[in-house]
Amino acid sequence: MRGFGAEVHHAKTKDGYYIHVVHIINPEIDRSKLRRPVIFNHGLLESSTIWLINANKVKPLPYEHQCGEISPSQLSANETQYLNGPMMLANHGFDVWLMSMRGTDWSLKHETLSAKDPEFWDYCLDDFALVDVPTVIDYVLRKTGSKKVGYIGHSQATFSIFGLLATIPSYADIVEPVIAVAPVAFFDHITSVARLLFLGTLTATNKDKHGPFPKEAKELRTTLASVCKRPGSFLKTACDLVEMLISGKGDKWLLGYFAHLPFFTSLKVLRHFGQLIQSKRYQMYDYGAEENKRIYGSTRSPSYNIKRIRSKSLCLISTKSDALSPPTDVSRFKNQLTVPLYKDIFIDKDFDHFDLITSAGAKELVFKPIMAIFEEFELNSANCVPQQQSSDYKEDFTNEIGLEYHKEKDQVENEATAN
Protein backbone atom coordinates (compact mmCIF):
# COMPACT_ATOMS: atom_id res chain seq x y z
CA MET A 1 0.00 0.00 0.00
CA ARG A 2 2.83 2.39 0.80
CA GLY A 3 5.37 1.31 -1.77
CA PHE A 4 7.48 -1.00 0.41
CA GLY A 5 7.95 -4.66 -0.42
CA ALA A 6 7.22 -7.47 2.04
CA GLU A 7 8.53 -11.03 2.16
CA VAL A 8 6.96 -13.63 4.41
CA HIS A 9 9.29 -15.98 6.28
CA HIS A 10 8.63 -18.71 8.84
CA ALA A 11 11.23 -19.44 11.49
CA LYS A 12 10.70 -22.93 12.90
CA THR A 13 11.22 -23.33 16.65
CA LYS A 14 12.72 -26.41 18.30
CA ASP A 15 9.24 -27.36 19.56
CA GLY A 16 7.64 -27.20 16.12
CA TYR A 17 6.01 -23.75 15.89
CA TYR A 18 6.42 -21.66 12.74
CA ILE A 19 6.99 -18.05 13.76
CA HIS A 20 5.68 -15.63 11.15
CA VAL A 21 8.30 -13.03 10.18
CA VAL A 22 7.79 -10.24 7.66
CA HIS A 23 10.87 -8.81 5.94
CA ILE A 24 10.29 -5.19 4.89
CA ILE A 25 11.97 -4.19 1.66
CA ASN A 26 12.77 -0.60 0.72
CA PRO A 27 12.93 -0.68 -3.11
CA GLU A 28 14.85 2.62 -3.14
CA ILE A 29 17.92 1.09 -1.44
CA ASP A 30 20.52 -1.34 -2.75
CA ARG A 31 19.96 -4.54 -0.75
CA SER A 32 23.64 -5.44 -0.99
CA LYS A 33 24.49 -2.37 1.10
CA LEU A 34 21.97 -2.74 3.90
CA ARG A 35 22.93 -1.85 7.44
CA ARG A 36 22.32 -4.18 10.38
CA PRO A 37 19.04 -6.12 10.59
CA VAL A 38 16.48 -4.96 13.17
CA ILE A 39 13.76 -7.16 14.68
CA PHE A 40 10.50 -5.59 15.89
CA ASN A 41 8.50 -7.61 18.43
CA HIS A 42 5.03 -6.93 19.82
CA GLY A 43 3.08 -6.89 23.07
CA LEU A 44 0.23 -8.94 24.54
CA LEU A 45 -2.80 -9.43 22.27
CA GLU A 46 -0.89 -7.63 19.52
CA SER A 47 0.95 -8.86 16.43
CA SER A 48 3.57 -7.43 14.11
CA THR A 49 0.92 -5.23 12.48
CA ILE A 50 0.76 -3.04 15.60
CA TRP A 51 3.99 -1.39 14.44
CA LEU A 52 2.51 -0.31 11.09
CA ILE A 53 -0.53 1.70 12.22
CA ASN A 54 1.20 5.09 11.97
CA ALA A 55 2.50 4.37 8.48
CA ASN A 56 -0.26 5.85 6.34
CA LYS A 57 1.86 8.80 5.18
CA VAL A 58 5.22 7.05 4.97
CA LYS A 59 6.80 6.27 1.60
CA PRO A 60 10.09 4.57 0.62
CA LEU A 61 13.01 6.98 0.45
CA PRO A 62 16.52 6.54 -0.95
CA TYR A 63 19.42 6.61 1.47
CA GLU A 64 23.00 7.24 0.44
CA HIS A 65 24.84 7.21 3.76
CA GLN A 66 24.98 3.54 4.71
CA CYS A 67 28.71 3.73 5.41
CA GLY A 68 29.14 7.35 6.42
CA GLU A 69 27.90 9.95 8.84
CA ILE A 70 24.44 11.30 8.07
CA SER A 71 24.02 15.04 7.91
CA PRO A 72 21.60 16.77 10.32
CA SER A 73 19.67 18.12 7.35
CA GLN A 74 18.98 14.65 5.99
CA LEU A 75 18.08 13.32 9.44
CA SER A 76 15.43 16.02 9.81
CA ALA A 77 14.14 15.85 6.23
CA ASN A 78 10.96 14.03 5.25
CA GLU A 79 9.42 14.27 8.72
CA THR A 80 6.59 11.86 7.94
CA GLN A 81 9.00 8.91 7.94
CA TYR A 82 9.38 9.29 11.71
CA LEU A 83 5.71 8.45 12.25
CA ASN A 84 6.53 4.77 11.97
CA GLY A 85 9.43 2.83 13.46
CA PRO A 86 9.89 -0.02 10.94
CA MET A 87 9.59 2.16 7.85
CA MET A 88 11.71 4.90 9.42
CA LEU A 89 14.58 2.45 9.85
CA ALA A 90 13.99 0.96 6.40
CA ASN A 91 14.33 4.47 4.98
CA HIS A 92 17.70 4.80 6.72
CA GLY A 93 19.16 1.68 5.20
CA PHE A 94 18.41 -0.80 7.98
CA ASP A 95 17.18 -4.33 7.24
CA VAL A 96 13.80 -4.53 9.00
CA TRP A 97 12.07 -7.72 10.20
CA LEU A 98 8.71 -7.93 12.01
CA MET A 99 7.95 -11.03 14.09
CA SER A 100 4.64 -12.34 15.44
CA MET A 101 5.07 -14.74 18.35
CA ARG A 102 3.45 -18.17 18.51
CA GLY A 103 -0.30 -18.22 18.86
CA THR A 104 -0.98 -14.86 17.25
CA ASP A 105 -3.24 -14.98 14.22
CA TRP A 106 -0.17 -14.91 11.97
CA SER A 107 1.69 -17.71 13.77
CA LEU A 108 -0.86 -20.51 13.99
CA LYS A 109 1.18 -23.15 12.16
CA HIS A 110 2.88 -26.07 13.87
CA GLU A 111 4.80 -29.07 12.62
CA THR A 112 2.37 -31.63 14.08
CA LEU A 113 -0.36 -29.74 15.98
CA SER A 114 -3.40 -27.84 14.81
CA ALA A 115 -4.65 -24.66 16.45
CA LYS A 116 -7.75 -26.63 17.43
CA ASP A 117 -5.58 -28.92 19.61
CA PRO A 118 -5.37 -27.82 23.28
CA GLU A 119 -1.69 -28.83 23.27
CA PHE A 120 -0.98 -26.11 20.70
CA TRP A 121 -1.85 -23.46 23.32
CA ASP A 122 0.28 -24.95 26.09
CA TYR A 123 2.86 -22.15 26.18
CA CYS A 124 3.69 -19.20 28.44
CA LEU A 125 5.94 -16.14 28.55
CA ASP A 126 8.99 -18.35 29.05
CA ASP A 127 8.45 -19.88 25.61
CA PHE A 128 8.50 -16.42 24.07
CA ALA A 129 11.70 -15.47 25.90
CA LEU A 130 13.66 -18.70 25.60
CA VAL A 131 12.41 -20.13 22.30
CA ASP A 132 10.61 -17.73 19.96
CA VAL A 133 12.86 -14.68 20.34
CA PRO A 134 16.22 -16.50 20.03
CA THR A 135 14.81 -18.57 17.15
CA VAL A 136 14.00 -15.42 15.19
CA ILE A 137 17.29 -13.74 16.13
CA ASP A 138 19.26 -16.75 14.90
CA TYR A 139 17.10 -17.03 11.78
CA VAL A 140 17.60 -13.38 10.80
CA LEU A 141 21.35 -13.55 11.40
CA ARG A 142 21.58 -16.68 9.26
CA LYS A 143 19.55 -15.13 6.46
CA THR A 144 21.38 -11.82 6.38
CA GLY A 145 24.92 -12.90 7.19
CA SER A 146 25.16 -10.10 9.75
CA LYS A 147 27.04 -10.51 13.05
CA LYS A 148 24.72 -8.14 14.92
CA VAL A 149 20.99 -7.58 15.07
CA GLY A 150 19.01 -4.77 16.68
CA TYR A 151 15.87 -5.48 18.70
CA ILE A 152 12.89 -3.22 19.39
CA GLY A 153 10.18 -4.64 21.63
CA HIS A 154 6.97 -3.27 23.10
CA SER A 155 5.62 -4.36 26.50
CA GLN A 156 5.43 -8.19 26.53
CA ALA A 157 8.29 -8.26 24.02
CA THR A 158 10.50 -6.47 26.56
CA PHE A 159 9.75 -9.19 29.13
CA SER A 160 10.92 -11.66 26.49
CA ILE A 161 14.24 -10.01 25.66
CA PHE A 162 15.03 -9.35 29.34
CA GLY A 163 14.36 -13.02 30.08
CA LEU A 164 16.62 -14.15 27.23
CA LEU A 165 19.46 -11.83 28.26
CA ALA A 166 19.16 -12.97 31.88
CA THR A 167 19.17 -16.67 30.94
CA ILE A 168 21.69 -16.66 28.08
CA PRO A 169 23.83 -13.54 28.72
CA SER A 170 25.93 -14.14 25.58
CA TYR A 171 23.05 -12.79 23.47
CA ALA A 172 24.17 -9.36 24.72
CA ASP A 173 27.11 -9.67 22.31
CA ILE A 174 24.78 -10.33 19.37
CA VAL A 175 21.76 -8.10 19.99
CA GLU A 176 22.77 -4.42 19.78
CA PRO A 177 21.03 -2.19 20.50
CA VAL A 178 18.14 -3.48 22.62
CA ILE A 179 15.27 -0.98 22.70
CA ALA A 180 12.61 -1.72 25.34
CA VAL A 181 9.49 0.40 24.79
CA ALA A 182 7.06 0.33 27.76
CA PRO A 183 9.34 -2.13 29.60
CA VAL A 184 7.73 -4.76 31.83
CA ALA A 185 9.25 -7.17 34.34
CA PHE A 186 7.51 -6.40 37.63
CA PHE A 187 3.81 -5.69 38.17
CA ASP A 188 3.70 -4.57 41.79
CA HIS A 189 1.93 -1.27 41.04
CA ILE A 190 -0.12 -2.04 37.92
CA THR A 191 -3.38 -0.03 37.94
CA SER A 192 -4.68 -1.08 34.53
CA VAL A 193 -7.95 -3.00 34.35
CA ALA A 194 -5.81 -5.75 32.78
CA ARG A 195 -4.80 -6.57 36.37
CA LEU A 196 -8.28 -8.00 36.98
CA LEU A 197 -8.06 -10.09 33.80
CA PHE A 198 -4.66 -11.52 34.71
CA LEU A 199 -5.57 -12.36 38.29
CA GLY A 200 -8.98 -13.65 37.23
CA THR A 201 -7.43 -16.37 35.06
CA LEU A 202 -5.76 -17.85 38.15
CA THR A 203 -9.11 -18.68 39.74
CA ALA A 204 -11.69 -18.58 36.95
CA THR A 205 -9.98 -21.13 34.69
CA ASN A 206 -8.60 -24.62 35.21
CA LYS A 207 -4.80 -24.35 35.23
CA ASP A 208 -4.59 -27.53 33.16
CA LYS A 209 -6.98 -26.22 30.50
CA HIS A 210 -5.26 -24.76 27.46
CA GLY A 211 -6.77 -22.74 24.66
CA PRO A 212 -6.76 -19.42 22.80
CA PHE A 213 -7.78 -16.10 24.29
CA PRO A 214 -10.01 -14.53 23.23
CA LYS A 215 -11.75 -17.16 21.12
CA GLU A 216 -13.60 -14.45 19.19
CA ALA A 217 -10.52 -12.32 18.48
CA LYS A 218 -11.34 -11.68 14.84
CA GLU A 219 -14.97 -10.80 15.56
CA LEU A 220 -13.93 -8.48 18.40
CA ARG A 221 -11.57 -6.58 16.12
CA THR A 222 -14.31 -6.10 13.55
CA THR A 223 -16.80 -4.91 16.19
CA LEU A 224 -14.36 -2.52 17.86
CA ALA A 225 -13.32 -1.00 14.54
CA SER A 226 -16.98 -0.38 13.70
CA VAL A 227 -18.30 0.80 17.07
CA CYS A 228 -15.41 2.95 18.23
CA LYS A 229 -15.38 5.19 15.18
CA ARG A 230 -18.94 6.45 15.71
CA PRO A 231 -18.71 9.94 17.19
CA GLY A 232 -21.04 10.93 20.01
CA SER A 233 -22.46 7.49 20.67
CA PHE A 234 -22.62 5.86 24.10
CA LEU A 235 -20.53 2.99 22.79
CA LYS A 236 -17.86 5.42 21.61
CA THR A 237 -17.77 6.86 25.13
CA ALA A 238 -17.35 3.32 26.44
CA CYS A 239 -14.41 2.82 24.06
CA ASP A 240 -12.78 5.98 25.45
CA LEU A 241 -13.24 4.64 28.98
CA VAL A 242 -11.63 1.30 28.04
CA GLU A 243 -8.64 3.16 26.62
CA MET A 244 -8.16 5.07 29.86
CA LEU A 245 -8.61 2.04 32.12
CA ILE A 246 -6.21 -0.16 30.15
CA SER A 247 -3.53 2.34 29.23
CA GLY A 248 -3.70 5.26 31.63
CA LYS A 249 -3.79 8.92 30.63
CA GLY A 250 -2.73 9.70 27.10
CA ASP A 251 -3.78 10.38 23.55
CA LYS A 252 -6.87 8.84 21.99
CA TRP A 253 -6.16 5.58 20.20
CA LEU A 254 -6.11 5.75 16.43
CA LEU A 255 -9.00 3.96 14.76
CA GLY A 256 -6.54 1.62 13.09
CA TYR A 257 -5.57 0.35 16.51
CA PHE A 258 -9.09 -0.96 17.19
CA ALA A 259 -8.89 -2.97 13.97
CA HIS A 260 -5.74 -4.73 15.17
CA LEU A 261 -6.56 -5.63 18.77
CA PRO A 262 -7.01 -8.21 20.11
CA PHE A 263 -5.03 -10.95 18.41
CA PHE A 264 -4.87 -14.45 19.86
CA THR A 265 -2.73 -15.41 22.83
CA SER A 266 -2.98 -18.38 25.20
CA LEU A 267 -4.78 -18.64 28.51
CA LYS A 268 -1.49 -19.84 29.98
CA VAL A 269 0.17 -16.53 29.06
CA LEU A 270 -2.55 -14.65 30.95
CA ARG A 271 -2.07 -16.97 33.94
CA HIS A 272 1.66 -16.25 33.82
CA PHE A 273 0.97 -12.51 34.04
CA GLY A 274 -1.38 -13.20 36.95
CA GLN A 275 1.39 -15.10 38.74
CA LEU A 276 3.77 -12.16 38.26
CA ILE A 277 1.28 -9.85 39.97
CA GLN A 278 0.59 -12.33 42.75
CA SER A 279 4.21 -13.24 43.49
CA LYS A 280 5.70 -9.77 42.97
CA ARG A 281 8.63 -11.50 41.25
CA TYR A 282 10.05 -11.55 37.71
CA GLN A 283 9.64 -15.30 37.53
CA MET A 284 9.24 -18.27 35.28
CA TYR A 285 5.88 -20.03 35.12
CA ASP A 286 4.76 -21.61 38.40
CA TYR A 287 3.45 -25.15 37.80
CA GLY A 288 2.96 -25.96 41.49
CA ALA A 289 5.45 -27.46 43.94
CA GLU A 290 5.50 -31.00 42.59
CA GLU A 291 5.75 -30.10 38.92
CA ASN A 292 8.22 -27.29 39.66
CA LYS A 293 10.47 -29.84 41.33
CA ARG A 294 10.40 -31.99 38.20
CA ILE A 295 10.95 -29.11 35.75
CA TYR A 296 13.17 -26.71 37.67
CA GLY A 297 14.65 -28.91 40.40
CA SER A 298 13.04 -26.71 43.05
CA THR A 299 9.54 -26.48 44.50
CA ARG A 300 9.54 -22.75 43.73
CA SER A 301 9.61 -21.46 40.19
CA PRO A 302 12.89 -19.57 39.61
CA SER A 303 13.17 -15.83 39.11
CA TYR A 304 14.92 -14.46 36.07
CA ASN A 305 18.24 -13.16 37.39
CA ILE A 306 18.34 -9.56 36.18
CA LYS A 307 21.88 -9.20 37.53
CA ARG A 308 23.06 -11.57 34.77
CA ILE A 309 22.00 -9.11 32.05
CA ARG A 310 25.28 -7.68 30.76
CA SER A 311 24.04 -5.81 27.73
CA LYS A 312 25.78 -2.46 27.26
CA SER A 313 23.26 -1.46 24.60
CA LEU A 314 20.03 -1.68 26.63
CA CYS A 315 17.75 1.33 26.19
CA LEU A 316 14.48 1.88 28.08
CA ILE A 317 11.67 4.15 26.90
CA SER A 318 8.97 4.65 29.53
CA THR A 319 6.37 7.21 30.57
CA LYS A 320 4.95 8.54 33.83
CA SER A 321 1.30 7.78 33.01
CA ASP A 322 1.66 4.11 32.02
CA ALA A 323 -0.97 2.11 33.92
CA LEU A 324 0.52 -1.23 32.84
CA SER A 325 4.16 -0.38 33.43
CA PRO A 326 4.28 2.41 36.04
CA PRO A 327 7.58 4.20 36.81
CA THR A 328 7.94 2.51 40.21
CA ASP A 329 7.97 -0.96 38.62
CA VAL A 330 10.37 0.16 35.89
CA SER A 331 12.67 1.58 38.56
CA ARG A 332 12.67 -1.74 40.42
CA PHE A 333 13.94 -3.43 37.25
CA LYS A 334 16.60 -0.75 36.68
CA ASN A 335 17.83 -0.97 40.26
CA GLN A 336 18.66 -4.67 39.79
CA LEU A 337 20.78 -4.13 36.70
CA THR A 338 24.53 -4.34 37.23
CA VAL A 339 25.48 -2.74 33.90
CA PRO A 340 24.55 0.91 33.17
CA LEU A 341 21.78 1.54 30.68
CA TYR A 342 22.89 2.88 27.32
CA LYS A 343 19.87 5.20 27.30
CA ASP A 344 17.06 5.78 29.77
CA ILE A 345 14.35 7.85 28.10
CA PHE A 346 11.56 8.90 30.46
CA ILE A 347 8.58 10.78 29.02
CA ASP A 348 7.32 13.08 31.77
CA LYS A 349 3.84 13.73 30.42
CA ASP A 350 0.45 12.08 29.95
CA PHE A 351 1.57 9.56 27.37
CA ASP A 352 0.36 6.02 27.94
CA HIS A 353 1.40 2.41 27.32
CA PHE A 354 0.15 2.33 23.73
CA ASP A 355 0.83 5.97 22.84
CA LEU A 356 4.50 4.98 22.85
CA ILE A 357 4.02 3.19 19.53
CA THR A 358 0.62 4.29 18.17
CA SER A 359 0.32 8.02 18.85
CA ALA A 360 1.40 10.66 16.36
CA GLY A 361 3.34 12.12 19.27
CA ALA A 362 5.59 9.07 19.22
CA LYS A 363 7.39 10.63 16.25
CA GLU A 364 9.24 13.15 18.45
CA LEU A 365 9.19 11.29 21.75
CA VAL A 366 9.99 7.73 20.67
CA PHE A 367 10.94 7.13 17.06
CA LYS A 368 13.37 10.01 16.56
CA PRO A 369 15.34 9.02 19.70
CA ILE A 370 15.36 5.40 18.45
CA MET A 371 16.71 6.57 15.10
CA ALA A 372 19.48 8.52 16.83
CA ILE A 373 20.44 5.45 18.89
CA PHE A 374 20.74 3.26 15.80
CA GLU A 375 22.82 5.89 14.02
CA GLU A 376 25.21 5.96 16.97
CA PHE A 377 25.61 2.20 16.92
CA GLU A 378 26.25 2.07 13.19
CA LEU A 379 28.95 4.72 13.39
CA ASN A 380 30.58 3.23 16.49
CA SER A 381 30.56 -0.40 15.38
CA ALA A 382 31.48 -0.02 11.69
CA ASN A 383 28.92 -2.71 10.98
CA CYS A 384 28.22 -1.44 7.49
CA VAL A 385 29.20 -4.44 5.37
CA PRO A 386 27.39 -6.01 2.40
CA GLN A 387 25.07 -8.83 3.47
CA GLN A 388 24.99 -12.20 1.76
CA GLN A 389 21.74 -14.13 1.62
CA SER A 390 22.00 -17.82 2.49
CA SER A 391 21.65 -20.45 -0.21
CA ASP A 392 18.20 -21.53 1.01
CA TYR A 393 16.84 -17.96 0.87
CA LYS A 394 14.61 -18.53 -2.16
CA GLU A 395 13.40 -21.89 -0.94
CA ASP A 396 11.56 -20.29 1.98
CA PHE A 397 9.17 -18.60 -0.44
CA THR A 398 8.51 -21.58 -2.68
CA ASN A 399 7.67 -24.27 -0.15
CA GLU A 400 4.18 -24.98 1.12
CA ILE A 401 4.70 -23.13 4.39
CA GLY A 402 5.75 -20.00 2.51
CA LEU A 403 3.39 -19.64 -0.42
CA GLU A 404 0.32 -21.47 0.84
CA TYR A 405 0.41 -20.10 4.38
CA HIS A 406 -1.95 -17.19 3.87
CA LYS A 407 -4.44 -19.36 1.99
CA GLU A 408 -4.65 -21.54 5.07
CA LYS A 409 -4.62 -18.73 7.63
CA ASP A 410 -8.36 -18.01 7.69
CA GLN A 411 -9.18 -21.70 7.95
CA VAL A 412 -6.78 -22.16 10.87
CA GLU A 413 -8.11 -19.04 12.59
CA ASN A 414 -11.69 -20.24 12.22
CA GLU A 415 -10.78 -23.63 13.66
CA ALA A 416 -9.22 -21.95 16.71
CA THR A 417 -12.30 -19.80 17.21
CA ALA A 418 -14.66 -22.75 16.87
CA ASN A 419 -12.64 -24.71 19.40
TrEMBL record:
The active site is at 155 (nucleophile), 322 (charge relay system), 353 (charge relay system). Keywords: Hydrolase, Lipid degradation, Lipid metabolism. GO terms for biological process: lipid catabolic process. Residues 3-54 form the Partial AB-hydrolase lipase domain. GO terms for molecular function: hydrolase activity, acting on ester bonds. It comes from the Eukaryota. The keyword Lipid metabolism applies. Gene3D superfamilies: alpha/beta hydrolase (3.40.50.1820). Belongs to the AB hydrolase superfamily. Lipase family. This is Lipase. It comes from Cryptomeria japonica. The lineage of its organism: Eukaryota, Viridiplantae, Streptophyta, Embryophyta, Tracheophyta.
